[in-house]
Amino acid sequence: MNAEPDKTSMGERPTPDRMLHAGSEGEITAEDLVLASGRDVNEKTLAWAEARMAKKGRRTSMDELLP
After folding, report:
1. Among 9, 56, 10, 14, which Cα is nearest to 33's?
2. CB–CB of 34/48 below 8 Å?
3. Which of 24, 37, 52, 62 has an alpha carbon within 20 to 30 A of 6's alpha carbon?
4. Does residue 55 sit in helix, strand or coil?
5. How far apart (Å, rounded) are the C-alpha atoms in residues 54 and 33?
6. Which residues, at least 6 apart from 65, have a Cβ–Cβ distance to it below 8 Å?
7. What segments bear the compositional bias annotation Basic and acidic residues (predicted)?
8. Secondary structure (DSSP) of 1-62
């Protein structure tokens, strides 16, 4: 077993906050919404997500699904 940490490891130090949070730097997509809802991505669920985002807005649609 290799005792050396890999390039992404911080060893015994806490992981920096910037590495823990993915954030939403880009625009929320229908696929993002479907995946956040726990559904499979297919034509029907993508249509559901598009309709939900059109009605409630992208951010609100996602915020309602996440804790």
Report:
1. 56
2. yes
3. 24
4. helix
5. 12
6. 33, 36, 37
7. 1-20
8. ---S--TT--TTSPPPHHHH-----S---HHHHHHHTTPPPSHHHHHHHHHHHHHH-HHHHH
